[in-house]
Amino acid sequence: MATRKLVLAVVLAAVAVPATASVMVIGNSAARRCFEAADSPLSPQVADIRGCDGAIREEALNREDLVATYVNRGILKLRRNMTGEAIVDFDTAIRMNPGQGEAYLNKGAALIRLENPSEALRLFTVALERNTTRPEIAHYGRGVANEALGNTRAAYNDYRRASELSPEWEEPRTELSRFRVVPR
Q1: Is residue 181 part of a domain?
Q2: What is the C-alpha separation between 145 and 111, in angstroms, rounded?
C-alpha cells in the first residue's frame, strides 16, 4: 500500500501526465491564476495558495468559479503535503456543489495518502458517477484502493480501465504487469 500510495501521490503532481483534476476558471483574475497554478506541472508555492485565498476572499466569483477555486486551492495544498487542509477545501467544494466530480476525485487521492482506502474507493466511484474530467485517475485510484482492500480482481479491472483511457500513461501499465490472469 505504501508504494502505491506514493505512486498515486507522485502521479497527482506529475509533470508528464497532468494528473490533478483542476477546474478551469475563465478570465484574468486571481481565481484564474489559482487554476493555472493547480494545472501547472511546477511545484506549487505558498504564494500560489495565497493567490487562491485572495480570490476566495476578495473576488466577486460566481458560485461555479468559487467551487472551482476551492478545488484548485485544495490541489495546491495536497501537492504541498497539506493533506488535512486540502480535504477541508474539497469538502467545501462538495458542500457547495455536490455534482463537482473533481472535488471527489482529489479528496479520494488525499484519503489514499491518509491510508483510508475504503472511503477513497467510494469517492473515486462518486467522481466517476459525477463525470470527472480525469476518469483514468479515478480508475487508477480505485485500483490502488481496491488492492489495499484485497479486492484483486477489481484492482486489476480498474488498472486496466485506466490504461485503456490513457494508453500513454505508464503507471497503470506498470501495475498491470504485476498481475497474472489465469483463465477459469
Answers
A1: no
A2: 10
Residue type, 82: M
- Sequence-separated (6 or more) residues with CB below 8 Å from residue 83: 77, 110, 113, 114
φ/ψ of residue 5, rounded to 5: -60, -45
Domains in the chain, number: 1
CATH at 114: 1.25.40.10
Q: Which three cell numbers stand for residue 121?
A: 474507493
| Nearest in space to 104 (alpha carbons), one of 76, 128, 72 | 128
Catalogue the E-assigned strands of the chain.
none
Judged against a pLDDT cut of 50, whether residue 2 lies above it is answered with: no
Which amino acid type is present at position 184? Answer: R
Give the range of the structural domain holding residue 77, as residue numbers without chain letter: 2-176
Between 142 and 25, whose confidence is greater? 142
Reported as half-sphere exposure (CB side, CA atoms, 13 A), residue 139 has a value of 22
Residue 9 has pLDDT above 90, yes or no: no
pLDDT (tens digit per residue) in 93-135: 999 999 999 999 999 999 999 999 999 999 999 999 999 999 9
Axis-axis angle for helices 101-113, 135-148 (nearest 10): 30
User: How far is Cα 82 from Cα 100, in angstroms, rounded to an integer?
Assistant: 21
